[in-house]
């Protein structure tokens, strides 16, 4: 048995009808979330961002090591530096690092190397993965960091959408420049760059369809 203290589980049992209703409500809400590239510069309430990050920080993690850091960037000069560095990487990506198949897959989205939203969006949240513990503690091993950080990212995107904010998951690979610009310690690796804010009144998004349930779900056993 573990020497750590245990407490009673705070769990509310619901009827099948209530469970189904809540599941459908959440599905319908999250189905409205879209990746946005046209942001208004209007500032967002910092308290809302803090609450959403608290939600992300409640995600399960390997050995409960919580291997994440969320850096919120609102300083215009930092956003400018991030945009310039991201666009430099993207010029290399679109100019030759991406093969033709990759470029063809991106073509319907209308993306290119220009990332002005990184300066326009009122806030950027940069999610860093802690590859191991602090150097000063001897770099203790962390477990399942990729899985843990992916779950926390999902919590964060859902929380921001639920709060009424638009987001974009941006990965200007490689992203080492974020570690340098934001002066992160040696054990942290940039995982995702998320512009956050309100969409412009004329914002449009690609007309996409998501795969139907029967295409993404396989059921083994009785129902």
Q: Name the quaternary structure.
A: single chain
Cα-atom Rg, whole angstroms? Answer: 20 Å
Major sheet characteristics: 4 strands, antiparallel
Q: Which structural category fits the helices and strands?
A: alpha+beta
The CATH homologous superfamily of the domain at 39-83 and 115-200 is named NADH Oxidase
Low-confidence stretches: none
What name is given to the CATH topology of the domain at 39-83 and 115-200?
NADH Oxidase
| Spatial separation of the terminal alpha carbons | 36 Å
Q: Which CATH class of the domain at 39-83 and 115-200 applies here?
A: Alpha Beta
Largest beta sheet: strand ordering: 1-2-4-3
Query: Which percent range describes the beta-strand content?
Result: 5-15%
| Tertiary shape | globular
Under the CATH scheme, the architecture of the domain at 39-83 and 115-200 is 3-Layer(aba) Sandwich
Q: Could you explain the architecture of this structure?
A:
This protein has a domain at 39-83 and 115-200: NADH Oxidase. The protein is globular. A four-stranded antiparallel sheet has the order 1-2-4-3. Helix 2 packs antiparallel against helix 6. It has helices at 16-31, 46-56, 76-97, 100-106, 117-120, 145-163, 176-181, 213-216, and strands at residues 68-73, 123-130, 166-167, 188-197. The two termini are 36 Å apart. It is α+β, with helices and mostly antiparallel strands and 223 residues long.
